[in-house]
Design brief:
The complex is a heterodimer of chains A (about 160) and B (about 700).
Chain A (H helix, E strand, L loop, with lengths): L1 H15 L1 E11 L4 E11 L4 E5 L4 E5 L4 E5 L2 E3 L3 H19 L2 H5 L2 E6 L2 E6 L7 E9 L2 E9 L4 E10 L1
Chain B lengths: L3 H15 L11 H4 L2 H12 L5 E7 L3 H15 L4 E5 L6 H14 L1 E2 L6 H17 L15 E2 L10 E2 L2 E4 L3 E8 L6 H15 L5 E4 L1 H35 L2 H25 L5 H11 L3 H9 L11 H17 L5 H24 L15 H4 L5 H18 L14 H13 L5 E7 L2 H14 L13 H12 L3 H15 L34 E4 L2 E8 L2 H4 L5 E3 L2 H35 L3 H22 L4 H23 L3 H18 L9 H23 L2
Antiparallel strand pairs in B: 1-7, 1-8, 2-7, 3-4, 5-6, 6-7, 9-11, 9-12, 10-11
Classes of the chains: A alpha+beta (about 160), B alpha+beta (about 700).
């Protein structure tokens, strides 16, 4: 009975969406500097929301637009920034959903040293060198994006928020 | 001699087989209706990919819809006839390469020399952003100061959600460039079937392409024509089997009609370059008018007497042939071709019925003269003439022309619904025009001129610089000291805290600038901006917000198919009016020669059916070109009957011949009234009404 309830809960959470705590580490090659950020990431069926703790900012992406809020106040984003962020959020969503056919339309996939390695084949290859990721129980656990300019972004998804 | 009719048919079939490689039948319906200039223009537009785009829309904006779009797009790319598939704003690799190479020239360059302080300030702000920005900000190593800015493209602000193309509020959009023009029937059907099969696996997906009309409508027309042919055959068999009870006459008539059709078909399709399949079909139907001659001969026992020529049939034949000969000079391809076919097939049929049939030994037709029938008729010819004039006046007063050629086609509600939905959801209202020039350079200059006048214009000029602008920019970049700027950036960046050598390559891309040579323009096909060269003229398409203003340039011409057809139709009606009036005058003259004092009586056989039919047509709505053309057939039939009835020595036999002839005509044309295709239905209505009017005449006019 408990197992059934557990499965039902899992199903329900996949329908209604999933929220996680995460930590993000960014490396900027230009200034040889690491930036550490923490927050929550909320994957919904048709949207994605990332909330950082310090500074208190929030990004809500519904597949069409991004709403950027800082200290509870909506802030403007310029078109180029918006376009880059949308692309980034689309990749995160794609990695979270993990639909193999969708991933294969953008990347070549291979597995090595416990990682899944994705190499972009389409236009993403102009910006992204490769992506490493791991999943635990079919849930995204670790992502590292290697960018063409030698920068990289590492995301560790810690635990699901219930 | 009794097999001579079969021998003629066999001989013609043999000739047909021998010359089969020389037979050319055109299936391009456009050439029948549009002017030569319009056809050439549409041909150029086809080469530029106009009308070859297919739109596929997936309902909704959820993740599932996105996935479906990608799956469908992948599958579409594998189909034969698909050239390019677009569903996102992300440029193609070829276009990215182009931007990479031409970036320094395409971008607006802020050429104001920068001071050390200004460089320092900009770099400091970049440095701070790396430390404080909560969203990831990448640095452009090549242009850290942001001196080069690509201009916003105008005219191509297509609807999108994120990077995905959308069809208004309906859902995601896939734009497919195909190689299929609406006139390529076989390829169109193949791709249509493939797309249908592919989309059958997905729900809430709509697809539309202009060639879908070609496929769906032709299938509908084919089914309709098959049903009409079956109906026509049944009616003809009924006439001969049940009423005439003469199987031999039926067999020989069918052989004679087949020979006449083959004779005319061979001459027309071998000697004329673009003889159209539609003209062939109409011409074949018109051949059935010759049954008049046979029935008149048969009911007047022409085949059992030694008479060489029946004067009435000869006059009827001559008048019809002269009328069609005049119409064969009309500058409307469809009518001219049908008229030539009619002259050939009717002449052949007349020859066979007059000179071959007497040798086939038909039995005498027994008929009792009932001349009292004639004397009992209530209405004199004059009163019918007056009624006809009233009906004509009524028709002229209420006359309304339908110039829209699309109304003649099968009314495909399903496709029209999808087309309407797509039009309503498309927010970008731009019209395509053709731009031409004598060189590629001149073409781009013309496009630039057009963009200056109509800034929202979307064309190759949105991507490619004209030579003058390009050379100015090149000169500006050559005169700017980028080496000094590079040194300044490197020194200041290092002083601020950037990694040593990080900006080593900054602005060095300006040291290897491209030339002002035009790129391969084919890479812009993804935007429906193709480029085409023929007979020393270069063509491309531009999308403009206002065609009328664009057309003020002599290098711009519109490709609005509807407008072209409407212009053609207006010319067609004028020509039809002119030639029609001439035919009427000639027919009147010939009637006067053949019937002398009974000219009013004979004239009523043309005037009354035409005026009654016109009156009914104008009461029902507007009159189209097929109605008018069918009226000409009605005139051709009316001439024969007028002459037969005016000069008849055995009126009861003549009336009987006409009744059967009317039934035959109804079998050939009248059954078209049951067609769902407006063009065919229009012919059916006119012929049925006309036959009815003639039937009334033979019953009431004395």
């Amino acid at each position: 009975m408990i197992k059934v309830l557990f499965v039902l809960c899992l199903l329900l959470s996949s329908v209604t969406g999933q929220s996680f705590h995460f930590s993000e580490l960014r490396y900027s090659d230009a200034i040889n500097h690491y930036t550490q950020l923490n927050g929550t990431i909320d994957f919904q069926k048709d949207s994605l929301e990332i909330s950082y703790k310090h500074p208190a900012v929030d990004f809500f992406y519904d597949g069409e637009d991004i709403v950027y809020t800082k200290d509870g106040k909506e802030m403007p984003l310029d078109a180029t920034q918006k376009a880059h962020m949308m692309q980034y959020f689309d990749i995160l969503k794609m990695l979270h959903v993990g639909d193999e056919s969708e991933l294969k339309s953008e990347f070549t996939m291979s597995h090595s040293h416990g990682f899944t390695l994705l190499k972009p084949t389409g236009t993403l290859r102009y910006y992204i060198e490769k992506i490493e990721l791991t999943k635990e129980n079919n849930l995204l656990e670790y992502v590292k994006l290697y960018l063409k300019n030698n920068d990289y972004i590492t995301i560790n998804i810690d635990n699901e928020i219930h | 001699m009794k097999y001579i009719n079969i021998f003629i048919l066999s001989f013609l079939l043999f000739v047909g087989i021998l010359l089969k490689d020389s037979i050319h039948v055109s299936t391009n319906l456009l050439s029948l209706f549009a002017t030569k200039e319009s056809v050439t223009k549409l041909d150029i537009a086809n080469n530029l990919g106009y009308s070859k785009e297919m739109i596929i829309a997936v309902k909704g904006f959820d993740h599932e819809a996105k996935k479906r779009v990608k799956k469908i797009a992948e599958a579409l790319k594998k189909l034969h006839g698909v050239e390019q598939v677009e569903f996102s704003l992300v440029p193609t690799p070829a276009l990215q390469e182009y931007y990479k190479n031409y970036y320094p020239l395409l971008a607006h360059f802020d050429h104001k020399p920068l001071t050390k302080q200004e460089v320092e300030k900009k770099l400091q702000s970049l440095y701070d952003a790396q430390l404080t920005n909560v969203f990831y900000t990448s640095i452009n190593k090549n242009d850290p100061l942001g001196l080069f800015v690509l201009p916003q493209q105008t005219g191509n602000d297509v609807a999108h959600r994120g990077s995905m193309l959308t069809l208004g509020k309906y859902g995601y959009l896939i734009r497919v460039m195909t190689t299929i023009a609406p006139s390529q029937m076989n390829d169109a059907r193949k791709l249509y079937d493939d797309v249908e099969a592919l989309l059958s696996h997905y729900h809430d997906v709509i697809a539309f392409a202009p060639f879908f009309y070609t496929v769906e409508n032709s299938a509908k027309i084919k089914a309709d024509v098959q049903w009409i042919v079956l109906l026509s055959t049944v009616v003809l068999l009924l006439i001969y089997f049940i009423f005439l009870k003469n199987i031999k006459l039926l067999t020989q008539t069918l052989i004679a009609l087949a020979s006449s059709m083959i004779f005319a078909s061979l001459i027309c399709t071998i000697t004329m370059e673009n003889f159209n399949v539609l003209s062939l079909a109409f011409g074949m139907s018109l051949t059935a008018v010759s049954i008049d001659y046979l029935l008149h001969y048969y009911f007047h026992n022409f085949y059992t007497t030694s008479q060489k020529i029946d004067k009435n049939v000869f006059y009827g034949f001559l008048t019809t042939i002269i009328a069609f000969s005049i119409l064969s000079f009309i500058p409307i391809a469809l009518i001219a071709q049908i008229s030539i076919f009619a002259v050939l097939s009717l002449s052949f049929a007349y020859g066979v019925f007059t000179f071959v049939f007497p040798k086939l030994s038909f039995p005498q037709y027994e008929v009792v003269e009932k001349n009292e029938l004639i004397t009992r008729k209530p209405l004199p010819a004059f009163s019918i003439f007056i009624v006809s004039l009233f009906l004509l006046a009524y028709s002229a007063y209420n006359f309304k022309l339908d110039v829209n050629m699309r109304h003649l086609d099968y009314q495909n509600k399903h496709l029209r619904g999808i087309e309407k939905l797509i039009k309503e959801q498309t927010t970008l209202k731009m019209s395509a025009v053709i731009v031409e020039a004598k060189s590629e350079e001149a073409l781009i200059s013309h496009l630039k001129e057009l963009t200056c006048k109509l800034p929202k214009t979307f064309s190759l000029a949105s991507f490619v610089l004209d030579k003058k602008t390009c050379q100015n920019r090149l000169s500006l970049l050559h005169h700017y000291d980028f080496k000094h700027l590079n040194q300044l950036v490197q020194t200041q960046a290092q002083a601020i805290g950037f990694k040593k050598g990080y900006f080593q390559e900054s602005y060095m891309f300006t040291q290897n600038l491209p030339t002002c040579k035009l790129p391969n323009l084919d890479i812009f096909r993804a935007f429906s901006l193709a480029f085409f060269h023929k007979n020393g003229i270069y063509y491309t398409m531009a999308f403009v917000p206002n065609v009328v203003e664009a057309k003020t340039f002599d290098f711009v011409s519109d490709i609005d198919v509807k407008a072209m057809f409407n212009r053609s139709v207006a010319t067609m009606y004028k020509n039809l009016e002119l030639f029609g009036s001439f035919v009427v005058l000639v027919v009147l003259g010939l009637l006067f020669v053949s019937v002398k004092t009974k000219v009013l009586y004979a004239l009523n056989y043309i005037l009354f059916p035409v005026s009654l039919t016109m009156a009914v047509l104008v009461s029902m709505g507007s009159v189209n070109i097929m109605h008018l053309f069918s009226l000409i057939i009605l005139v051709a039939i009316g001439i024969d009957y007028g002459i037969y009835m005016s000069n008849s020595e055995k009126p009861a036999n003549t009336m009987l011949a006409i009744k059967y002839s009317l039934l035959s005509t109804f079998a050939a044309f009248g059954v078209l009234i049951f067609s769902t295709i407006v063009a065919l239905n229009s012919i059916g209505i006119v012929i049925t009404l006309g036959c009815g009017a003639i039937f009334i005449l033979i019953k009431v006019m004395r």
